[in-house]
UniProtKB/TrEMBL annotation:
Its cofactor is Mg(2+). Pathway: Organic acid metabolism; glycolate biosynthesis; glycolate from 2-phosphoglycolate: step 1/1. Mg(2+) binds at residues 19, 21, 182. This is Phosphoglycolate phosphatase. It comes from Pseudomonas fluorescens. Coiled coil: none annotated. It catalyses: 2-phosphoglycolate + H2O = glycolate + phosphate. Gene3D superfamilies: HAD superfamily/HAD-like, Putative phosphatase, domain 2. Its EC number is 3.1.3.18. SUPFAM superfamilies: HAD-like (SSF56784). The active site is at 19 (nucleophile). GO terms for biological process: carbohydrate metabolic process; DNA repair; glycolate biosynthetic process. Belongs to the HAD-like hydrolase superfamily. CbbY/CbbZ/Gph/YieH family. The lineage of its organism: Bacteria, Pseudomonadati, Pseudomonadota, Gammaproteobacteria, Pseudomonadales.
Amino acid sequence: MSGFEQLFPGQLPRLVMFDLDGTLIDSVPDLAAAVDNMLLTLGRKPAGIESVREWVGNGAPVLVRRALAGGIDHASVDDVEAEHALEVFMEAYGASHELTVVYPGVRDTLKWLHKQGVAMALITNKPERFVAPLLDQMKIGRYFKWIIGGDTLPQKKPDPAALFFVMKMSGIPASQSLFVGDSRSDVLAAKAAGVKCVGLSYGYNHGRPIAEESPALVIDDLRKLIPGCLDTAAEITLPDASQPPSGNAIVVVTRKLWMKVIKALARWRWRA
């Protein structure tokens, strides 16, 4: 039985929201190259790809601070030093994405969902300026009607604000929506928004198995969502026992977002 058949019996979700890094693309080689370039520029030793693989997932500022700290805990990093290092990193990362690749099954899945008329959105903590060009380079950008980067809105995952925003824009409720990601931040954001979440086992998640975060479903290939596409051996995990957010919570979040909607839409990448 496919992932969609398990999570949405007799129907498809009307909206699927995706994370980017570790979910649709493997960007760690380019991120690691940029981090090492930054560290060398600052007179430090390079971190290497395996360390960077464990540090990604919470946006560029946090990645840079972890690189300066040499580990996940970055509380001791000087803010002024981190700000300068971030500028160096952003310049280095913006120069090249030649080592980034699309994971197997991603294009097939996006194409299938598009043919079924399922609306798709991308919600990533990656800085917005990199997202649309990277999607176009990977030849998958045309599938997404809404694109939200890590600085498009004031909040980023694990805050659910971006998920609420997309559902509000699409007019599709949480009960008919799905989020697909690879990290703890993705699962937490989806649960906070009352949205079912699929976790991908091949992603980053700071070196920890995504099953530990208890998404609704764990798969190792996106095509396992599609009925009849692959022999599915997806692992079902118990959903969070907590109740979804109340209507009042949604109203509060969306009211805050609409205060910023004009600014957000001015930077929006709208796709037909």
